[in-house]
Amino acid sequence: MNNTYEARLVQQETAVGAGVQILLLALLGTAIGMGPAGWLTGLAFAVATWAVLSRALHRTRPRSFGPANRVTLGRATLVGGVTALVADSYQDSPPVTLFVGLTAVALILDGVDGKVARATGTSTPLGARFDMEVDAFLILVLSVYVSMSQGPWVLLIGAMRYGFVAAARVWNWLNAPLPPSMARKTVAALQGILLLVAASGYLPHTVTFGVVALALSTLVWSFGRDVLWLWRTHRADQAAVGELLELEFVAVEREREPEAVAS
């Protein structure tokens, strides 16, 4: 009975997050007169986040939602607001201060939830995955917005992580765990900052182009390095398995030799 009660409380927190998302959309709609595209996209984001997170919580059944996940959920709410502004920008450009402010707070909180998880001893695979998905979606949304002024090539920044996930479904060796890397974390953090600088419109067009090109080049380097490491590790594992099978085969053949001689 107590476990059912705890599970109900955890699910209620995701519903509260969806409610806060709708409240933020209402505030944005009142402030800037957001059109149907922004409303529909923001509502779709809220429903999708609630559904996916609820399903994940039902599958893992944590005892509590946890303080770090609350921070990540708050960040997801801000990302939902940014997503609505980007969708609405196809009709009217959003106020720069509002857009930059929401995105900046979401990026700042990216460094908070992990620290909260470690400080409270509540780190979980679900929390890490939730954090990663919110980060990836924010980068995708920012790349969509910047691509309006810089060209479709910017979409490669947002799509690269999803392309990697899709490729891992075909080549299973891409699913192997990667070693910790400060360079990888730094490059990932830089993507949001550089895209936000580009999206702000404060810089000349040529400088903005250079900023986005820097973001893409560092991301390509980071992904390329990780894929190369995974490939080499995969080949080394295959070679080790091949050698083991060969040794077993030789051992079996040696055991058979005395039997052949005796017969």
Written account of the structure:
The structure is a single chain. The longest helix has 58 residues, at 205-262. It is built from eight helices and no strands. The chain has one domain: Four Helix Bundle (Hemerythrin (Met), subunit A) (Up-down Bundle). It has helices at residues 2-32, 36-60, 67-88, 96-120, 125-150, 155-170, 182-200, 205-262. Helix 4 runs antiparallel to helix 7 and helix 7 runs antiparallel to helix 8 (205-262). It has 263 residues and is an all-alpha fold. The relative contact order is 0.08. Pfam families: CDP-OH_P_transf.
CATH topology tier name = Four Helix Bundle (Hemerythrin (Met), subunit A)
What is the overall pLDDT average? Answer: 86
Q: Indicate how many domains the architecture comprises.
A: 1
Number of helices: 8
Please give the share of residues in helix.
over 70%
The major pleated sheet works out as:
none
- Structure classification: mainly alpha
Helix and strand run: HHHHHHHH
Supply the CATH class.
Mainly Alpha
Q: Give the uncertain stretches in residue-range form.
A: none
Strand content: under 5%
* Gross morphology: globular
How many E strands?
A: 0
Keywords: Membrane, Transferase, Transmembrane, Transmembrane helix
Protein name: Integral membrane protein
InterPro entries: CDP-OH_P_trans, CDP-OH_PTrfase_TM_dom, CDP_ALCOHOL_P_TRANSF_CS
Family: Belongs to the CDP-alcohol phosphatidyltransferase class-I family.
